[in-house]
Amino acid sequence: MSRDVDSNHNVTFDCKYHVVFCPKYRRKVLVEPIDERLKALLSEKATYIQAEIVEMEIMPDHVHLLIKCDPQYGIHKVVKQLKGYTSKVLRDEFKSLKSRLPSLWTNSYFVATVGTVQLDVIKKYIEEQKSR
């Protein structure tokens, strides 16, 4: 089995994380057209901070991401950047989000490391979220 590894100037790594986060009060606000805009914003910001979203699914009341990032930058910084950026832009563009929620995202999130063996299983799980 070959591994797809990345490298910065002093660390070679293959770090992937399954991340799940929810809107405040788990409100079902991530629906058309907000969900499509959220996908675009997450991809845009991930590229900007040099993280890679390997897989993504937006459910009405939560977000699943499979993220590959530099361990020296840290998954906590990636999640903070993604949530902060998307909250600001979405609440500016969709006024209904401002009136329904004091902030878009909860402060908490779920994160688990994903080993190479688990990668296909996690990707399939995220891909199948919409069909449930």
UniProtKB/TrEMBL annotation:
- GO:BP terms for this protein? DNA transposition
Q: Which SUPFAM superfamilies match?
A: Transposase IS200-like
Q: Name one Pfam family in it.
A: Y1_Tnp
Q: Which InterPro entries does the protein's record reference?
A: Transposase_17, Transposase_17_sf
Q: Which residues form the Transposase IS200-like domain?
A: 12-129
A GO molecular-function descriptor: transposase activity
- Protein name listed in UniProt: Transposase IS200-like domain-containing protein
Species whose genome carries this gene: Sulfoacidibacillus ferrooxidans
